[in-house]
Amino acid sequence: xxxxxxxxxxxxxxxxxSGLRAVxxxxxxxxxxxxxxxxxxxxxxxxxxxxxxxxxxEFIAATYSFEEVxxxxxxxxxxxxxxxxxxxxxxLRATVGGRALLGSLxxxxxxxxxxxxRWLTAVSPLVTAASPGTRTFGTAGNGRLEYYGVSDxxxxxxxxxxxxxxxxxxxxxxxxxxxxxFSSVPPRPSLARVxxxxxEARSPRPPQH
Length: 209
Hints:
This protein has helices at 54-63, 101-107, 111-114, 117-130, and strands at residues 4-16, 21-29, 35-41, 47-51, 68-71, 74-79, 82-87, 90-99, 137-139, 144-163, 166-167, 171-172, 190-200. By secondary structure, it is an alpha+beta fold. Strands 1, 2, 3, 4, 5, 6, 7, 8, 9, 10, 11, 12 and 13 form a 13-stranded mixed beta sheet that branches. The protein is globular, with a radius of gyration of 17 Å. 37% of the residues are buried.
């Protein structure tokens, strides 16, 4: 796969009244084929990765930070306005609502531009100003660089979430922000159309004599 990995799909960010926060990736295209994963941050701040295969778990855990990694069956179905996720101890049923204002602005940018890594590096400060806690470019684990190219954004209007069979409480903001990597998801629960690019940082050139 070389030093560049591209994941094309959706990211859902969900907060709950209990303080549990979940970030679900639904990837239609990736170096590992289609798959879904879930990152969960418990009210205690413990971060848990739920991944469908060892190689996927190894890659994600090398890019983000977790206290625990579990390989479990992960099913995520996005059909129309409905999102259904079953991932080991996590069960999520969500309804996707209207397009966010930021989503309308993002759709105005041609997608080839919206996912371009140079563009994402340049606009990251503007995105942070518009959606506190979110960034489109930053450094990830093992010296990797990561770019989030978001081309659409919808609010999540309702959700029922359970963890280990216990209801996690009503849909709530993602607060405090999740801390898996350099960026959180938007504070308001949402579903983003996204292309994530992970790249190895270039080694510095040796000094010239």
